[in-house]
Design goal:
alpha/beta, Aminopeptidase, 2 domains, binds 2-acetamido-2-deoxy-beta-D-glucopyranose, binds zinc ion, metal-binding, zinc, signal, Peptidase_M28
Length: about 500
């Protein structure tokens, strides 16, 4: 019932919008910005909190909580009748876990590797020769025991699979610098061509060197305990394109719907995805000259998986039809900065496809006009705009900061605390609603509203017409993507 009522209402609206092209119903930046209300953004945040409750405080892809977020977005967009919406569902290997290593009563500070298998292994620790990148480095003494391998030269995944091939029962990789590795991945879910993965963890360089000295003076029995879930999970992107507007000049905006397993992800990326959803829900009050498409991406935290899956599925012509892409990932950080992706490359020397400079400058003037300071942030492809850059689509976006530390100068510009992370709860259980900076969230959401409204009317400054290099999209490096998640690098070697 409800559905058919809203369809009728939307059809009436579409007719009136279509009947009066170019008049006061045409989308304007100012009106769209004014339609972005704090109360609506907070309602979306409340919904995300509810979703995370369905799966132990997380909205990681493949969980009930994440599915609930996907359903919420799809349902809200469908109810407007203003969009053609689509779920793009696919399967991807989920992985989450913890690792613990103890030896001689010492509990080591241990990091788990993404795709590392679960297990509980107690055995003597045996040092592997060289860097453990070749079969010959693993002597027969490794069999049945825990292989201790130094970091370096080749992927962690290769070392762990070679240890498995040599019959090791477990493996520990120690860092080649004093501290811990700081987040590692085996990159591939399995390496059947090399050998089976064994329960594994990593320890700091200091601990590794001390452990080797200890082994040199007598047998050391260790225990590796890995608690992990590794399984294929079905998950979905949500795409929504306005029924109105020129579909050969599509303005695109996107953000990711998943969180990390450790927390509910209300800033990362509840803020970006819900900011864009709210824009999408207000947009139906107007008509657009160029079509507007929203992409709500799954599994960004696993290496931009959803956005890449979608971009790679497009034909060269479909890619050429996308005039530009705007990315919203973390726009309500508690100790925020107003960062703009450095599309012109003048700050970080990584330049986006032509037109990315124009997007950066548009956001710069948005903040300037609001009397606010903004700063560039590296345009390195570590969020869902990466696959768009690889496909040659001009891109840009805003970011209020993650684990980086605020400088003294920035604290003068934006307030907050110098020497403290922009988001101290980044990728943790504390990424909750009460830790959002709602002022920054509104400011950035209005920034996206401004960019969407501006470009939906006029693509001046964005190169059009030339066919993009279709081959380019094939250059997307899966390994590079899998190594990076949400402005944070997981090390693969
Ligand atoms: C939530 O945690 C409990 C206990 O740790 C576990 O049994 C359950 O499977 C978890 N539920 C989900 C949806 O992950
Ligand atoms: C989430 O949605 C996918 C795709 O529709 C479905 O296959 C899966 O079973 C759902 N997972 C949960 C935990 O509900
Ligand atoms: C393993 O380590 C994690 C922290 O890394 C800790 O939360 C967990 O309780 C430990 N598990 C065991 C069985 O010691
Ligand atoms: C690992 O196995 C040993 C026995 O082999 C057992 O004593 C220990 O409790 C197990 N550890 C965990 C965390 O289950
Ligand atoms: C900028 O990057 C280009 C190509 O990647 C390189 O040749 C050039 O030396 C870099 N310039 C600076 C100032 O680092
Ligand atoms: Zn993110």
């Amino acid at each position: 019932m409800k559905f058919s009522v809203s369809v009728v209402a939307a059809t009436l609206f579409l007719e009136s919008a279509l009947a009066t092209p170019g008049d006061e119903k045409r989308l304007q930046s100012k009106q769209l910005r004014h339609a972005i209300l704090r109360s609506n953004l907070l309602k979306h945040a409340d919904a995300l909190v509810e979703h995370a409750r369905l799966s132990n405080g997380s909205r990681a892809f493949g969980s009930k909580g994440h599915n609930a977020t996907v359903d919420y977005i799809k349902r809200k967009l469908d109810a407007t009748g203003y969009y053609d919406t689509e779920l793009q569902t696919f399967v991807y290997p989920f992985s989450d876990g913890t690792a613990n290593f103890t030896a001689k009563e010492k509990k080591y500070s241990t990091e788990w590797f993404t795709y590392g298998p679960a297990g509980n292994v107690t055995a003597p620790v045996v040092v592997v020769n060289e860097l453990g990148c070749e079969k010959a480095n693993f002597l027969a003494t490794v069999e049945g025991n825990i292989a201790l391998i130094k970091r370096g030269s080749c992927e962690f995944g290769l070392k762990i699979a070679l240890a498995g091939a040599a019959g090791a029962s477990g493996a520990i990789i120690y860092n080649n610098a004093d501290g811990p590795i700081g987040g590692g991945t085996l990159i591939k879910p399995s390496r059947p061509d090399v050998g089976p993965y064994v329960p594994a963890g990593s320890i700091s360089g200091v601990d590794g060197v001390a452990l080797i000295a200890s082994i040199a003076s007598g047998e050391v029995v260790g225990n590796i305990y890995v608690d992990a879930t590794n399984e294929d999970r079905y998950t979905s992107n949500v795409l929504a394109t306005t029924k109105l507007g020129d579909k050969k000049n599509v303005i695109m905006a996107g953000g990711h719907t998943d969180s990390v397993p450790a927390g509910p992800g209300i800033n990362d990326d509840g803020s970006g995805s819900m900011g864009l959803l709210e824009i999408a829900l207000q947009l139906p009050k107007w008509s657009v000259k160029n079509a507007v498409r929203f992409g709500f991406w799954t599994a960004e935290e696993y290496g931009l998986v959803g956005s890449e899956h979608w971009v790679v599925s497009l034909t060269a012509e479909q890619i050429s039809d996308i005039a530009l892409y705007l990315n919203a990932d973390m726009i309500a950080s508690p100790n925020f900065g107003y960062f703009i992706y450095d599309g012109d490359g003048n700050a970080f020397n990584i330049t986006g496809p032509a037109g990315s400079d124009h997007i950066e400058h548009l956001f710069e003037s948005y903040f300037k006009d609001a009397g606010l300071v903004s700063a560039p942030t590296e345009f390195d492809g570590r969020s869902d705009y990466g696959p768009f850059l690889d496909a040659g689509v001009p891109s840009g976006g805003l970011f209020t900061g993650a684990e980086g530390l605020k400088t003294e100068q920035q604290a003068k510009w934006w307030g907050g605390s110098a020497g403290v992370a922009y988001d101290p709860n980044y990728h943790q259980a504390g990424d909750v609603k009460s830790n959002l900076n709602v002022g920054a969230w509104i400011q950035c959401t209005k920034g996206f509203a401004h960019a969407i409204a501006t470009y939906a009317n006029d693509l001046k400054g964005i190169p059009r017409g030339g066919k993009r290099d279709a081959a380019k999209k094939r250059q997307i490096s899966h390994d590079r993507r899998r190594n990076s998640a949400c402005n944070h690098k997981l090390h693969g070697l």
